[in-house]
Design a protein that fits this description.
single chain, mainly beta, two-stranded antiparallel sheet, about 5% helix, globular
Length: about 120
Amino acid sequence: MNLVVDTDGDQQTGRQWWGANRQFTWDRLVTVWLTRTEEGAYRGTVGVGDPEGVKLFDFANLVRGKIEFILPSNEHAVVIGVPRAFLGEAEDVTLVGAVGSNTSWNGDLPDSGSTRIILHGGPR
């Protein structure tokens, strides 16, 4: 899963998203790419990247770990907690949620446009 985030509010800057919502540009990518092991543990990449890091296939170049996530027991949802400071100084951001595999993004939410989130209280 990815949260594809535009933190500067300018769709003329950033990197073009490679999923179904190709018209969206972003400057922060929150990544929770996990695979369940035979033992029931999860392994993968968790963190925050920017366009420069992602271009080099480092999807957590800004922050490794430090992203909280919960996989409820029914496994039909993922809850992700991102520290406010990781999203920059803006009072609001726009984002697209993306699910699928890391090679076939087939579920962007929304599949066109974006969702605006108001971030109260400034960076923490």
